[in-house]
User: Which sequence fits this backbone?
């Protein structure tokens, strides 16, 4: 499989913050890589460098076969970019926004009109095409933004947190469109804070923290490293929480964090048979249960397992996301 | 122009590693951005205020409220003050250049443009061109309102055209200053206050609204050196038929000087975004 996006040792520093610290990536043509990480991990910086908006301090990268530093024009001919903020002109209508992009991509006038109409129809915006984009809902703006990045039929698409801030219905709509694009053969680099989103859309996931990839694999491989599922137990009596944690820790041999605010003990469940054992032992210990749940691991737990540290943004220099934003 | 000629195929570009943007594309991209900025006016009331309502209000305010006090009668004052209001309108209007650019930055629109295979200068020149067109409209509106109140183009049509060109040129030079500010502060609210802050003393410590001779002695040298005064005097000479060569040449020198300093600065700030 040819490689559509490859990055080698990308670094970038903003003042005291090392936003990227030797980032390596490889995305095969026609596949989706989910770049997963907390705020300030360097996701946006990575996308901005690969999309030729930002220079790397060091490292090399090729996108669609062209060097991002020496051949930025050829790279720009072949990429689409949709950022965290819907970058559409609010004072123009949907049609005018897309027509403008078409003209900037050197489409002749009739073709630019046609392309705008086709994309609006595809993104369920045909009725709103004549209205100023400032009258659009958040989901409509994101769709228009995505449509704008597709005017030139780019073979490589960068989506930087495309669904952040969207309601579930709009998010599902956007996911459906993204799946269609991938089915048509577009190579996609998707950044997200949500494991579920990466899970839904990406064939491979790279977990990024402090500017470098700390784990890489399919969603199942990553979850297996966390322990497949998480068992959460809330004892009926809060005073039993520590004993519950101790019993679960003893059973699984892993640490069992307890949270006294939520009164939950949570443990990775690597072996499904442990569930029955856990319930029995708690029963034998005379601990009554208020709640018991099995769920898939969250991003925090992937992080906990991969780094030994929670993925709280507070562990980042507080200015990190700001730095990324101020250059955005 | 066939479709083939304007949309180079991927293969053609692959064969041309040094592919650049040709002059025809550059013009088309610049005009596309210009058109976009002009289309914005329709849906952006703030811009309409700057183009039409503000100059009209200023004309009415100065002519009817201050005119009698400054010139003895509002009728005499019209001929004196319209060139001043034109210059003031042109200068104040350029704040929108800075606000517009910083808004485009804040909303990610500049990112979108920078991710497209277009010359980066097209974004800046397209903005300045659109704002010059807006300035031209504001000049025409101010002149028309003035003429309703008795303002006359006493220097003849050629002098009037020269005055028009001078006013728009001065606005374009100031637009580069505003663009530099907008690209430096990168925040629409700051661009607005940083843009206006220095404009008030600059325009009011000038002979735009009152003759320099009526001001205290220490202020007069400042007022006479102020480019607002110089361009206003040039417009006055051109619209009354007085000797205009001196102030016109000085005005051209100011326009050229400001553009030569601030256009490269604005372009540098734009390139620094990377």
Assistant:
């Amino acid at each position: 499989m040819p490689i559509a996006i490859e990055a080698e040792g990308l670094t970038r520093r903003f003042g005291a913050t090392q936003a990227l610290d030797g980032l390596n990536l490889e995305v095969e043509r026609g596949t989706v890589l989910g770049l997963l990480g907390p705020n300030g991990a360097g996701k946006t910086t990575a996308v901005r460098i690969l999309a030729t908006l930002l220079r790397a301090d060091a490292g090399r990268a090729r996108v669609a076969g062209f060097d991002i530093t020496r051949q930025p024009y050829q790279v720009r001919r072949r990429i689409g970019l949709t950022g965290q903020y819907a970058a559409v002109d609010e004072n123009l209508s949907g049609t005018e926004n897309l027509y403008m992009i078409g003209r900037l991509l050197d489409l002749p006038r009739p073709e630019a009109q046609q392309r705008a109409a086709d994309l609006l129809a595809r993104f369920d915006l045909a009725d709103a095409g004549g209205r100023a984009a400032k009258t659009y809902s958040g989901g409509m703006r994101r769709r228009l933004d995505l449509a704008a990045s597709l005017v030139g039929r780019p073979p490589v698409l960068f989506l930087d947190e495309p669904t952040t801030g969207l309601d579930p219905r709009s998010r599902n709509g956007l996911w459906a469109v993204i799946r269609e694009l991938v089915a048509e053969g577009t190579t996609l680099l998707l950044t997200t804070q949500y494991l579920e989103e990466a899970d839904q859309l990406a064939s491979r996931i790279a977990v990024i923290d402090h500017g470098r990839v700390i784990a890489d694999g399919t969603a199942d491989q990553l979850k297996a490293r966390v322990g497949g599922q998480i068992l959460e137990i809330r004892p009926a009596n809060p005073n039993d929480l520590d004993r519950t944690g101790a019993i679960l820790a003893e059973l699984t041999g892993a640490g069992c964090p307890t949270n006294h605010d939520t009164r939950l003990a949570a443990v990775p469940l690597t072996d499904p048979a442990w569930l029955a054992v856990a319930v029995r032992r708690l029963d034998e210990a005379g601990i009554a249960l208020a709640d018991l749940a099995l769920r898939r691991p969250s991003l925090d737990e992937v992080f906990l397992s991969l780094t030994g540290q929670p993925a709280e943004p507070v562990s980042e220099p507080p200015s990190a996301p700001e730095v990324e934003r101020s250059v955005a | 122009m066939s479709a083939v000629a304007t949309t180079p195929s991927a293969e053609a570009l692959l064969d041309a590693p040094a592919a650049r943007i040709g002059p025809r594309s550059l013009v088309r991209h610049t005009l596309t951005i210009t058109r976009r900025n002009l289309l914005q006016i329709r849906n952006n009331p703030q811009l309409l205020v700057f183009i039409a309502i503000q100059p009209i209000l200023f004309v009415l305010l100065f002519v009817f409220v201050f005119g009698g006090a400054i010139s003895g009668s509002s009728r005499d004052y019209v001929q004196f003050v319209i060139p001043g209001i034109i210059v003031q309108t042109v200068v104040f209007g350029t704040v929108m250049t800075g606000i517009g650019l910083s808004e485009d930055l804040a909303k990610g629109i500049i990112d979108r443009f920078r991710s497209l295979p277009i010359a980066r200068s097209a974004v800046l020149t397209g903005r300045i061109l659109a704002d010059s067109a807006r300035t031209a409209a504001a000049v025409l509106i101010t002149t028309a309102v003035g003429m309703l109140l008795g303002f006359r183009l006493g220097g003849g049509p050629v002098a009037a055209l020269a005055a028009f060109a001078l006013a728009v040129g001065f606005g374009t030079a100031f637009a580069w200053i505003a663009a530099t500010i907008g690209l430096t502060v990168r925040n629409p609210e700051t661009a607005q206050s940083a843009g206006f802050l220095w404009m008030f003393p600059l325009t009011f410590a000038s002979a735009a609204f009152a003759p320099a001779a009526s001001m205290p002695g220490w202020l007069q040298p400042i007022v006479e050196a102020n480019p607002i005064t110089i361009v206003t005097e040039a417009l006055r000479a051109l619209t009354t038929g007085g000797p205009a060569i001196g102030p016109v040449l000085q005005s051209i020198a100011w326009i050229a000087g400001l553009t030569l300093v601030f256009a490269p600065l604005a372009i540098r700030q734009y390139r620094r975004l990377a």
